[in-house]
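C-alpha cells in:
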C-alpha cells in the first residue's frame, strides 16, 4: 500500500515537472527564451506581450509555476500583493491611469497555463485579450 502511494506521488511530481518543462513562461523565467524584461524581482517578472492588444500590454508573471487563478492559495499572499504593487507602478509609469484593464484569463480563455496578469492600457488594437 505504502509503495503504491509513493509511486503515485512520484508519478504526479514527474507530471508536474514535465508541465513546467513544456511551459513557455517557465522558460522565459529561466531566461531560456530571448525576451525583453521590463522588471524582475525574486518572485516575479514583467514582460511585454508578444502580440499586444493595446498601446500598452504587459504581463506580470510569478516565477513559481502556478497554473491558474483558481490555484492561488493563502501562501501566495505576499506574491499577490507584490503583483498588485508592480501593476500600480506600471499603470503610473505608462501613463494609462485613465484607461486600463487588468485581466486574468482562465479555462478555455487562458492560452498559457502559467498564471499571468495582463495590464492593457491606452487605445485597443483588438478586442480579445
Ligand atoms: P492568455 O490567453 O493565456 O491569458 O494569454 C497569454 C498571452 O501571452 C497572450 O496575450 C500572448 O500573446 C502572450 N504570449 C504567448 N507566448 C508568449 C511569449 O513567448 N512571449 C511573450 N512576451 N508573450 C507571449
Ligand atoms: Zn510555467
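Residues out:
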Amino acid at each position: 500500500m505504502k509503495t503504491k502511494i509513493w509511486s503515485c506521488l512520484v508519478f504526479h511530481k514527474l507530471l508536474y515537472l514535465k508541465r513546467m518543462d513544456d511551459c513557455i513562461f517557465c522558460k522565459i523565467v529561466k531566461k531560456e527564451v530571448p525576451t525583453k524584461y521590463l522588471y524582475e524581482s525574486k518572485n516575479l517578472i514583467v514582460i511585454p506581450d508578444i502580440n499586444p492588444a493595446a498601446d500598452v500590454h504587459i504581463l506580470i508573471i510569478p516565477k513559481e509555476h502556478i497554473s491558474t487563478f483558481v490555484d492561488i492559495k493563502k501562501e501566495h499572499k505576499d506574491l499577490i500583493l507584490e503583483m498588485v504593487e508592480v501593476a500600480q507602478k506600471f499603470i503610473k509609469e505608462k501613463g494609462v491611469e485613465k484607461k486600463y484593464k487588468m485581466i486574468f484569463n482562465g479555462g478555455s480563455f487562458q492560452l498559457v497555463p502559467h498564471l499571468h496578469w495582463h495590464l492593457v492600457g491606452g487605445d485597443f488594437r483588438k478586442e480579445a485579450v
